[in-house]
Amino acid sequence: MTDPNQSNEAPSRGDVLVAMSGGVDSSVAAALLQRDGYRVVGVTLKLWGGESDSGCCSVSDVDDARRVAQQLDIEHHVFNFGDDFDKFVVDPYVADHQRGHTPNPCVECNRHIKFDKLFRRADALGFDMIATGHHARVVTDPDGSFRISRGADDLKDQSYVLHMLDQNQLGRLLLPVGDITKEQVRELAAELGMRTADKPDSQDVCFIHSEGGRKVFLGDRISLRPATLVDQEGEKVGEVDSIELVTLGQRKGLDLGGDVGRRYVVDIDHETATVTVGHKDKLLVAGQKVENLEWSDMELSGEFKVQCSAHGRVLRGSLDGSTIVWWQPQRRIARGQSIVLYRGDEVVGGGIAGDAIEVQNDAANSDVAPNSAVPKSAVPDGTEDNGAVDDDAAEPMVASDFT
Questions:
Q1: pLDDT higher at 53 or 49
Q2: Which of 36, 66, 308, 351 could bridge to 293 as Cys pair (CB 3.0-4.6 Å)?
Q3: Cβ atoms within 10 Å of 35's Cβ, excluding its own
Q4: Rounded to an integer, what distance in angstroms lies between the CA atom of residue 360 and that of residue 338?
Q5: What is the CATH architecture assignment of 4-133+175-191?
Q6: Is-catalytic flag, 57?
Q7: What is the pLDDT of residue 256?
Q8: Where exactly does CATH 3.40.50.620 map onto the chain?
Q9: Is the CB of residue 18 less than 8 Å from the CB of residue 44?
């Protein structure tokens, strides 16, 4: 770190380690902090050592980050966290698929690497704060506690993937682009002549190559097992090559044969290698267990806004112990996905989706949904979709959260 006693500049607001992924958001974040008087040092995390074409963690991304740092005249370093990335992100990703869960690797990377490991390294090097290019905000409540809040750009908001941050981390985190839109970020980058100004956002899991996808990646690491497709009555209607690649709510990619209409994966039994398909309404549940529930500050109860995917729609539910009870039946969430709780725009806690709570038969057949005074007929078509699984997706889209 540069010795401040050797500088003729105005006193610094503090030493900030900026995580620079090689994307436009973190590039502009570094520039904004430098403009605001912070002493900025850029760092790029080397995480995945295999092939990547996702626009994240590649050699070209490291080069982009380094070139931006040179342009800003700030130090730039590369931290190799590859072993930790394999241990905390890649290995659990494979294990989750093997046991029938749908993991969220970007959330786990934030939890274990981009914040835990990075904060530890920042502490060892004497930095006051770290910063990233996430589209979210850190706010201070009247009681002095910190919260992650939604960013200014609703379409790019990344508060969901930061729900695990604790008070110590939030108190030392800067999110410079959280108050502006993505369009404004690109405009600022263009004004500064940054090479990343028009760089596309990364959209996929960084260690999954587009050519082979999950099938090749998982097939190189575990044995993929064929499974039988059955309908709600248990009659065989088809087969799939690998049960590990099937996701709850999936519609496309199922060889059902015949004119059976739209059918979705409504249950996956890994022990018997059986996948049950049915109508969309068979995915509706009354609630969902929340495992490993963590709070941003103090434990809360009552009603919450709930989000179940990075850019999913906002649901409403009440927390009963460790179970979210939906105000209206919602599509079940694949085990392994994150369930994040909000009060207003602020994240207050989150955990991992566990078992679903089935809708009781009498309630399912009535005109009024459980825990709701709103008749089912008054609910617009599609509003039961919690965003955890898209109709046409084989796996929930995991948006990049480190640009």
A1: 49
A2: 351
A3: 13
A4: 25
A5: 3-Layer(aba) Sandwich (3.40)
A6: no
A7: 74
A8: 4-133+175-191
A9: no
Q: How do residues 183-216 score in pLDDT, each as one tens digit?
A: 999 999 999 999 999 998 876 788 888 788 899 9
Q: Are strands 227-230 and 173-174 parallel, antiparallel or unpaired?
A: unpaired
What does the pLDDT read at residue 52? Answer: 65
What region does 225 belong to: left with phi over 0, alpha with psi -120 to 50, or beta? beta
| Average pLDDT along the chain | 85
* pTM as predicted: 0.84
Q: CA-CA distance, 133 to 174, in Å (whole number)?
A: 9
9: number of Cβ within 10 Å: 8
Active-site entry in 56, 57, 106, 109: 109
Q: Which amino acid is at 377?
A: S
Q: Which amino acid is at 308?
A: C
Q: Which of 266-270, 344-348, 381-385 has the highest mean pLDDT?
A: 344-348
**DSSP-derived pairing of the beta strands 302-307 and 146-150:** unpaired
- CA–CA separation, 286 and 126 (whole Å): 49
Query: What gap in Å lies between CA 1 and CA 38, rounded to an integer?
Result: 13
The top-level CATH class assigned to 224-278 is: mainly beta
The 10 Å CB-count burial string (b at 16+, else e) for 46-71 is ebbeeebebbbbbeebbebbbbbbee
Place of tokens 């682009």: 177
Q: Please state the separation of Cα 97 from the chain's center in Å.
A: 17
Contact predicate 147/141, CB 8 Å:
yes
User: Was domain 282-378 assigned CATH 3.40.50.720?
Assistant: no
Cβ-proximal residues to 383 (8 Å cutoff; 6+ apart), any chain: 313, 328
Strand-strand pairing, 15-19 and 39-46: parallel
Tell me how far CA of residue 285 lies from CA of 210, 214, 280, 324, in angstroms. 33, 28, 11, 11
